[in-house]
């Protein structure tokens, strides 16, 4: 998933115009207060020495990206006379290593980005502040589904709301005279309907479909579907089939249950038996680029953020795509996620750190990311208030309003939306890395999901305990 990585670098140019975009549509946003609408209270530190409290914010990116992000953060610095924020840019490849080094030296930033799968682990080691009271009295608390929780208490909130969707190429559907996938949850396709539709959209070089006499699976020129099999996204189908990766609090592993194994095998069989999907070994996070944008696949699952990170450009170049709810096996399920901004426990100025963080993630201050389709808002009112929803969705960067509202806005608020496991489970990095390795031969048909998972179940359980 690239939500996390886009979190900081994504601010670089888009947030520079965020103020202009937001202000153009709502004049009340021209001078937002540091707390995203609350009147700032004087800091004891500031009052004592008359100087601004210095806060450091870490992000992954190049020095150039850091400089550009600093220009955006300067908007906050200019909005009040109490807090001064300095951006610390660290290359993506060495981000966690650098933070670990800084932690050892007691030199962590005050606030910063943290990979989704590292939040609970850092919290369990006492490295993050409890932010459960950060939004009290503000009316700007993010959705509960976006809280990273350790021991039942929020230790971070996702800076954006993201869900998994089904994308599709409208021209391919039109040419095949096949109805579009449903945008409404109550009309969601079953898995069997999804596979049968994918067969109608899969063509070999002679125009034959899977199941037809003469179909050549070795000469497919258009695939009907692609289901993203990155380990974290693959959990969707385990849950949908009545299983899952973990128990309710993430302390025990369920991936070895028959329902979980069956779901994973069904995803593999899209390539191995149904012949409707291209081979994917679950190692690269470029699924939409490889499928919908490449023009080789009619339907593909992936995250909502792709609207802004890649599909907008493709749309301008002529791609006609649509969005729909995911198909389901037994239960209707999508995963919601979002990259985290955290307050590090080593900060000497937690109140100021939290004040900046509230400002930094307020919709009016990251409007560019929202209007581009990279982020979705974190406050419920943007989903419930039609005026705000239209302000957000009714723009040329999105598919038609009714379609997007149903397949994305409403879907994100439905019972189908479940939190990704890293919101509440420790050691998901170790578990997902191991699971991805274990499943490698499943995708190519060298082994089955049952054999691969059963043989490695003890290791997967150990990974869940950090062993």
Automatic annotation (TrEMBL):
It comes from the Bacteria. This is ABC transporter substrate-binding protein. It comes from Paenibacillus mesotrionivorans.
